[in-house]
Design goal:
Layout lengths: L1 E2 L14 H8 L3 E2 L8 H17 L6 E6 L5 H6 L6 E7 L5 H11 L8 E2 L20 E7 L7 H14 E11 L1 E2 L7 H13 L6 E2 H10 L3 E9 L3 E8 L1
Parallel strand pairs: 3-4, 3-6, 4-5, 6-7, 8-9
Antiparallel strand pairs: 1-2, 7-11, 10-11
Length: 241
């Protein structure tokens, strides 16, 4: 049985407003628990996992910070495939904490920490709700479907935080819709971009070569790999250098 969610999370900062879009457009939750279900996250989880396996170690003990964890569907799906990785989900939308933690509990995972509050637009030192976390603490940072739904300045916060929290040569892996070299295709992505901008002109699909690469370079983050994904999305693999 599925019931409608009658609460809407409104983030206090511009960053991570994708959670508001999720709460508005994907308002489904199992009546017996607190888990929210986003159909898009369910569809793309396996293709994303296939790429993660190319870049995330399956043997050495490492850790991964997830920025903008959404419902928790992704981290709870990925974690069993990487028992050597300690996952740290995070959200700006506190309303989603219960969903993330419920997915973790339901899956019986022991390598996933409870959800933490992170407003990625804030200074990195203020991440984790102000609780001190050591610089260069993480091997990986994973971020899904955020960049096109926040101002460019918020994406800058993501790169700045990656520079602060990633270990040397650590990876930032981002997933979403992107333009490249001034071209956005296909028409469905053009229409999607218009829809995003109609809600907030400061949001929109970003250009990899013209916007993101120069911005990331300011924080010693370099693009290493691009993967075309289903539904006209891409995975970008960045490295701290």
């Amino acid at each position: 049985m599925i019931k409608k969610i009658n609460q809407i999370c409104v983030p206090r900062q511009p960053l991570l407003k994708f959670c508001l879009l999720y709460c508005l457009s994907c308002s489904q939750m199992a009546a017996s628990d607190k888990k929210q279900f986003y159909p898009a996250a369910d569809r793309n989880k396996q293709p994303i996992l296939d790429i993660l396996k190319k870049h995330i170690s399956t043997s050495e003990n490492r850790n991964c910070l997830e920025i903008a964890s959404g419902s928790g569907q992704h981290v709870s799906f990925f974690a069993p495939h990487f028992p050597n990785i300690e996952f740290h989900p995070s959200e700006e939308c506190r309303y989603l904490f219960d969903s993330i933690d419920e997915y973790i509990k339901f899956s019986g995972l022991t390598n996933v920490k409870p959800a933490r509050f992170i407003d990625a637009s804030s200074q990195p030192e203020k991440w984790f709700d102000g609780t001190p976390v050591k610089k260069e603490s993480f091997d990986y940072i994973y971020n899904c479907n955020m960049i096109h739904l926040v101002p460019l300045s918020s994406t800058e916060g993501l790169f700045k935080g990656a520079n602060y929290y990633l270990k040397p040569n650590g990876l930032l892996i981002t997933y979403g819709a992107y333009a490249d070299n001034g071209t956005l295709t296909p028409q469905s992505n053009i229409d999607f971009n218009h829809s995003i901008k109609s809600r907030n002109p400061s949001h929109g699909i970003r250009d990899i070569s013209l916007e993101l690469v120069p911005l990331a370079k300011q924080y010693n983050i370099e693009l290493k790999h691009k993967y075309d994904m289903p539904a006209n999305n891409k995975i970008l693999v960045w490295q701290k250098v």
